[in-house]
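Quick review question:
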């Protein structure tokens, strides 16, 4: 019998059945529904560079400092990932904006200090979705900001160049809106794009993900984007600049995913990104760089604490990683037995089925405990159910785009 299976059996109450598992799953669904109805209290501050900054933050006119070349490359990469060029606004005509979690305001401060505008509340938090803050700059400063960002090749360069000359006349703006909409839909040519380490640091901060797999001591880097052209350019850049790198692009729904899977090359990539100004994922990168066989579980937990809440309830804890490894090993033994033939095939199939059942049970118990802890934490922060007398009534953002 698998030692891990015996150990996990000892941690479970006796006679756990499929009905017990279904009961736990029903509890998870009920708590997930409750969590989705909890509205965060209205935020008054955001966190950046180890300090709390009171909202809203508005740049003082005339004190902006134009970014240096490497800083501009980073900003263009970040804007390609998370930025938006707005057009057709009734009062101001055009604007630039970037949204971020209220806990990660460093990049927004950099944009505000370099290009003007302000940082405002954008969306209240609800359930796992944390409150969102937004940097926005509107005309006439938006024209200047767009001209600065439009200096370098990028996904949104043509939109930025058009925004930099956005007319004041409503009639002229109306004539240009269909062209801007077409630019937003079009896939740019790879020849019009360019990648540098600064650009990649900004783009990775916006769209990247650092992963440590449950069953291996290796770091995987991933970039997701709707545009395959920029992923092709980044892939070619990485393969040229990093010896031994492995980079493949896969379709993922409406998006494409660039996955870099060579452990040693990924360590080199992370170091180059840190040197190029990686900011949002700086702490994650340092945690991943410390990965070794003896701290695999600690590194995964450290990354989980630093990441956002996407797939929070699908992540495996340390016990889940051990179970996943045991299932992989059991699969290997079964494949070998099937090729060789023998009486142990039936026993291995039964053991594999029981391991999978125990793994499902363990993951469900962990998910239930995490849901309870998250709900209690939100309630301690002052969250309330949507529609209750204590729920925030002012959900309008401070910096509306006019």
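Suggested answer, residue by residue:
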């Amino acid at each position: 019998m698998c030692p891990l299976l015996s150990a996990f059996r000892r941690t479970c109450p006796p006679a756990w059945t499929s009905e017990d598992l279904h009961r736990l799953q029903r509890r998870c669904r009920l708590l997930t529904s409750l969590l989705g109805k909890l509205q965060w209290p209205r935020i008054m501050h955001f966190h950046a560079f180890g300090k709390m900054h009171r909202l809203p933050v508005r740049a003082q006119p005339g004190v902006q400092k134009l970014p240096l070349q490497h800083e501009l490359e980073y900003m263009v990469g970040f804007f390609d990932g998370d930025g938006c060029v707005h057009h057709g606004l009734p009062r101001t005509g055009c604007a630039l904006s970037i949204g971020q979690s209220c806990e990660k305001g460093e990049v927004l401060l950099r944009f505000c200090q370099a290009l003007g505008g302000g940082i405002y509340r954008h969306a209240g938090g609800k359930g796992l979705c944390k409150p969102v803050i937004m940097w926005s700059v509107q005309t006439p400063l938006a024209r200047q900001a767009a001209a600065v960002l439009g200096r370098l090749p990028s996904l949104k360069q043509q939109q930025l160049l058009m925004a930099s000359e956005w007319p004041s006349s409503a009639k002229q703006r109306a004539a240009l809106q269909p062209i801007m909409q077409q630019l937003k839909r079009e896939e740019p040519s790879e020849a019009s794009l360019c990648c540098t380490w600064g650009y990649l640091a900004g783009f990775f901060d916006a769209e990247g993900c650092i992963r440590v797999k449950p069953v291996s001591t290796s770091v995987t880097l991933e970039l997701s984007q709707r545009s395959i052209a920029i992923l092709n350019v980044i892939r070619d850049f990485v393969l040229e600049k990093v010896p031994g790198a492995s980079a493949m692009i896969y379709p993922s729904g409406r998006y494409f995913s660039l996955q870099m899977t060579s452990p040693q090359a990924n360590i080199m990539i992370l170091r180059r990104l840190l040197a190029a100004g990686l900011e949002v994922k700086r702490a994650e990168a340092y945690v991943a760089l410390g990965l070794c066989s003896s701290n695999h579980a600690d590194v995964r937990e450290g990354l989980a604490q630093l990441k956002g809440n996407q797939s929070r309830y699908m992540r495996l804890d340390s016990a889940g990683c051990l179970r996943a490894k045991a299932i992989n090993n059991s699969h290997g033994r079964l494949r070998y037995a099937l090729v060789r033939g023998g009486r142990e095939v039936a026993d291995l199939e039964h053991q594999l089925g029981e391991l999978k059942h125990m793994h499902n049970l363990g993951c469900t118990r962990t998910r239930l405990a995490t849901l309870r802890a998250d709900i209690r934490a939100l309630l301690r922060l002052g969250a309330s159910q949507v529609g209750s007398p204590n729920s925030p009534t002012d959900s309008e953002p401070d910096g509306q785009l006019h």
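Why it works: The chain has three domains: 45-186, 197-292, 316-379. The first strand starts at residue 38 and ends at 39.
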